[in-house]
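User: Predict the complex.
Assistant: Input components as received:
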Amino acid sequence: MFVILVYDFDKRRVSKALKIARKYLYWVQNSVFEGEISEANYVKLKAELEDIIDPDVDSVIFYTFRTQKYSKREEFGLKKGGEEFIL
Amino acid sequence: MFVILVYDFDKRRVSKALKIARKYLYWVQNSVFEGEISEANYVKLKAELEDIIDPDVDSVIFYTFRTQKYSKREEFGLKKGGEEFIL
């Protein structure tokens, strides 16, 4: 399935969150990641983020799609990440 | 159609971008907006953001969906925005 992940972590935790998210998804913009992911890895990714989250401060949203058939993606301005981008 | 907007504007332009995005969509997290939008308003929203963007610095991504049938949304941690949230 296809996933878009957006998060907002306090700066004390954001580098940990970045490291976790990049294990599973592509970084596309500050705090935004996307990619194809298996159900098993999606469960792992959520669990790893839940391990570090402070639920009173941080925020995580996952949008998951069984198909990309009905989606379109338009980007303008600086292209900051993507599949071909190595940080 | 349903739109998810994520942006990354330089701090000199981010308040303008926020003001524009909130005319059309709901704010859900720092730099993340979503909502149902007409094709006409989608064109307007893009034009307004393109008016202020510095394409060498700023970044805007739109994910558009004709249907939400195949999508799921999971959120954890602090709920920062949403339809019921008035800034």
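Residues 27 and 33 of chain A are 4 Å apart (CA to CA).
Let me know if you want any component modeled separately.
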